[in-house]
Specification:
2 strands; 4 helices
């Protein structure tokens, strides 16, 4: 898949979905990495993901990110979807 999108001229990062088959997460994530795709994150504890409802509940993206940083610490990546 990565080879096909590169041949088509796509220069971005191809990442797998967060959804995996129960019991097969490690195998599926490994397959994506071997194939050249990004695994996005291994599990819910790998990164903080802020979605529209988080932004709405805080009033702004800035406030949502600030709240996430306050509890996540410096080592976790924060992604706003």
């Amino acid at each position: 898949m990565v080879r096909l999108v590169r041949q088509a001229g796509y220069k971005g990062i191809l990442a797998g979905t967060r959804k995996t088959t129960p019991g097969f997460r490690l195998v599926e994530k490994y397959g994506m990495l071997i194939g050249g795709a990004d695994a996005h994150r291994m599990d819910l504890s790998s990164m903080v993901m802020l979605k529209d409802n988080h932004v709405w509940s805080r009033g702004s993206i800035t406030e949502a990110v600030a709240a996430a940083r306050a509890v996540a610490g410096f080592s976790l990546k924060i992604e706003v979807e």
